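Render this sequence as a predicted structure.
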Amino acid sequence: MLTSADILKSAHHVLDLESQSLKLLSDSLDDSFVQAVNTINATKGRVIITGMGKSGHVGRKISASLSSLGTTAYFVHPGEASHGDLGMIEPNDVVIALSNSGEAPELSDIIAFCRRFNIRLIGMTGRRDSTLARQSDIVLCLPPIQEACPFGLAPTTSTTLMMALGDALAIALLQMHNFSKDEYKLRHPGGKLGKMMLTVGDLMHKGDEMPLVKPDINMSDALIEMSGKGFGCLGIVNERGEFCGVFTDGDLRRAMAPDLLTKTIQDVMTRTPTTTTSQTLAIDALRIMNTTGKGITSLFVLDDHKKPIGLLHMHDCLRAGVA
């Protein structure tokens, strides 16, 4: 029966071993990695990832990471490839084959197919003298490492290194493609990531929905407009359509006086309001509303010419799941 100390000792051993191996991998990177990145970047086709067993599971993750970060990639199971799925691989594609030993027999048909049709093959393996390495155009060779498994058999450290090497490929290619946050958002519309990538422009109210008035409007008409739009605020624009102030429920409470209705909106408006842009992430806009200390629940959205193009309300963020 393992004690708590034994369990923690085992965990520390695994994590220390794998972290040390990652440092070895980093130190071992050479021009082969650069060639792999350039080859993938230059391909006119797709990236095909393949691998058997644990290497296959890692391959699926690498494929998903590449695709989500701007490099089209697919996983092809080597067993299925031998029964017709080789037809999924085309001459302009690049194949990345994963095998720590480099001798997985299930990869033989894919390797032969790549050689026959002159398809670029990148081998990710722990043995430079293996069949996979010898048959590959580019070899991404893992450094000599010890598996974390106490028998030295189960893929543990080796799969961690493969996963990390796949991440390194994906990020290098992202940077080569100048892949943007907007493109990332298009590939991640669902879940928490999708919510985090929503921009103010995705959620803001536009056009006639915006409560906008001129500076010389009298207070009685201004309050009717403010009540009718239901946002608890008004944006004030000058004769050039430029945003010059805001009037909120808070301003109304502060301006309460017997002569309020004899004034115009410019007499009581806030002349230096907090605003935002359509490109701002909604989560950042919500953070602005929550941290100004002024009880802001809405932000007017301005273009580069200081003209209002939208209005974001805190409730819009909450309804969209941004929090």
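Summary. The mean pLDDT is 92. The two ends are 45 Å apart (CA to CA).
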